[in-house]
Amino acid sequence: MGRVRSPHPYGHRKFITMSDGATSTFDLFEPLAEHCVGDDVTMVICPGIANHSEKQYIRTFVDYAQKNGYRCAVLNHLGALPNIELTSPRMFTYGCTWEFGAMVNYIKKTYPLTQLVVVGFSLGGNIVCKYLGETQANQEKVLCCVSVCQGYSALRAQETFMQWDQCRRFYNFLMADNMKKIILSHRQALFGDHVKKPQSLEDTDLSRLYTATSLMQIDDNVMRKFHGYSSLKEYYEEESCMRYLHRIYVPLMLVNAADDPLVHESLLTIPKSLSEKRENVMFVLPLHGGHLGFFEGSVLFPEPLTWMDKLVVEYANAICQWERNKSQCSDTEQVEADLE
């Protein structure tokens, strides 16, 4: 109910043709105020599973970030937008960073003086952390990264997704049902006779899709085969950001909620352990917040703007101010050295 009054920021949709023929899209929103340190800073944002720039929580966050002086680029997951057709037999997966990387490269090329704040929500948190950890070059021009409500390891999470506590099994069913609808809406592009499908993707997988009741079944029968993984275990191991987190050297804030019905408490040992070992990592764990909730205000009619939105922007502001002060100190030290 807190999302019914979400703002409607105005942006421009960009299209990028990928090397395999896929058409990736993202929406670009220009800042509505001067940034707190006067710099050109762009937030590159990756939404949650099957989400895009038109989702209410994304609209709310983008509007707030714009009003704080940030340009925002929001990835639309491949296949998630109902009015954009797939142009290759592939859609977004749990850890594929190709489309996000293409968006980041576009921003770097179009705005050569801009600095980046990387933001990922839920599944998007996995993608952005994996992207940064894949190669050191991906961290160039990045001021910091924020991941909100991700689970870090799909392999460890799959067991908890079948449990009924906090209605997790029911949520699993609902998300699987939504994924089925999206996949079937692109049936011709993915399974049509004219399509050059991945060798491992067979027509029988389509029939299995109809009977799937969990995300794991969909991942095993369809999603992993887009990238040629031989098993679900291999897919989850390779696509999870857990094995890439230690390669991230920019400031990294990992946010979860203790009462998140999707992310089991056993998964939170991953960010906790990382934050204890790495000075650049901050782990934030409020008792309440649910999954991408973090509402403030009255119980029945909370404010559209959430604690999550404020936290991400305030953290980004603090990092920008810290970078500005650090460069000013360096300039002062250089001047003093020259005078001596």
Would you write up a description of this structure?
There is one protein chain. The chain is globular. The mean pLDDT is 92. The protein is an alpha/beta fold. Strands 1-2-4-3-5-6-7-8 form an eight-stranded mixed beta sheet, sandwiched between helices. It folds into two domains: 241 residues, 3-Layer(aba) Sandwich (Rossmann fold); 79 residues, no CATH class.
Count of individual domains: 2
Order of helices and strands: EEEHEHEHEHHHHHHEHEH
Per DSSP, what share of the residues sits in E-state strands of 2 or more residues? Answer: 5-15%
List the strand order in the largest sheet: 1-2-4-3-5-6-7-8
| CATH homolog superfamily of the largest domain | Alpha/Beta hydrolase fold, catalytic domain
Please outline the major beta sheet. Answer: 8 strands, mixed
